[in-house]
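Q&A log
Question type: sequence-to-structure
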Amino acid sequence: GPAHLFRLAGKCFSFVESTYKYEFCPFHNVTQHEQTFRWNAYSGILGIWHEWEIDNNTFVGMWMREGDSCETKSRQTKVHLVCGKSNKLAYVSEPSTCVYSLTFETPLVCHPHSLLVYPTLTEALQRKWDEAEQLLYDELITDQGYKKILKEIFEEAGLLKATEEEEVEKQNKKISVEFETVEKCSKEYKQLSKEIKKLKDLLSQHGIAYKGNSGE
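Response status: OK
Response body:
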């Protein structure tokens, strides 16, 4: 993410609302402590630093996920970064059950370019983005295709975490690359044919009829 925000790392900012004290430690976690004399006062983690929230190619917030469990899911918090005169946690809410929203004010985001994603990327990823821009301009990809490329760039840069489904898709892509040449494909085909023959023989040994054609 933006290098100038790293100076917030190692610091924590608190906010007290009624009987709860919230603490936000950038690039680390968000916690909540119930300030009461009850024997079972709640104290827990509302999220651990996970990924950025990117909107309109700008960093708009930080996602703290995988907090303490809450019914069937984990607590998570979105921290909105807004311009302010000093570094302070200004507002806390819970828009939906166990999903929290924090507003963090800081002078570090007041400059109009302070939260742009592009300058934080490596040259290779910037080139990839430039190419995507050109493809979109030449109408060779749709807006949806452009957004998909940007998402891949952000994931590659480590700004966003890929979902499990995407990881599986990537693994499958890696596997399919192995059969790019005809030679590799023929070799694989022979191997699979042998395997199918073995399985057919095994089925007939057990008296199970094999239904299906060779195309399947």
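Response note: Residues 7 and 114 are 14 Å apart (CA to CA).
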